[in-house]
Hints:
Blueprint: H1 5-16, H2 23-30, H3 36-45, E1 47-49, E2 58-60, E3 73-77, E4 86-91, E5 97-102, E6 107-108, H4 110-120
Antiparallel strand pairs: 1-2, 3-4, 4-5, 5-6
The structure holds zinc ion.
Amino acid sequence: MKYTVEEYIKGCKCLEYGEKIPRKLKKAILGKMVTKTKLRRMLSDARINYNKYPESAEILPHPFCPNCGCDGSYVVDHYVEWPEVWYDDHCLKCHMIVGGADNSPYYHILEDIVEIHDKLIP
Ligand SMILES: [Zn+2]
């Protein structure tokens, strides 16, 4: 099924706001789900470069959602008063929280998972 540019852009915007869009349009924008095997390989390939505070860590080759492998995300701001910082990053595909900041530098959920993964494999 083909979509017009307008439909496509509108769909992208809805996704960024965390709104629901038709399943087929979502698939056209985000692509197919990553398989379990590929996701496991992505997790074992992921490496983290920790930077000095207050810079956030860098995830190589790229940050992705550990639940579905999607690399897109949208931000949910909790609108706390300055100088407080509190926002969450949600996955575009499965809406899981994939990162955020709570009066801290930005963190990605992979930072927890990859660390544990590295400890499990000697
Ligand atoms: Zn996801």
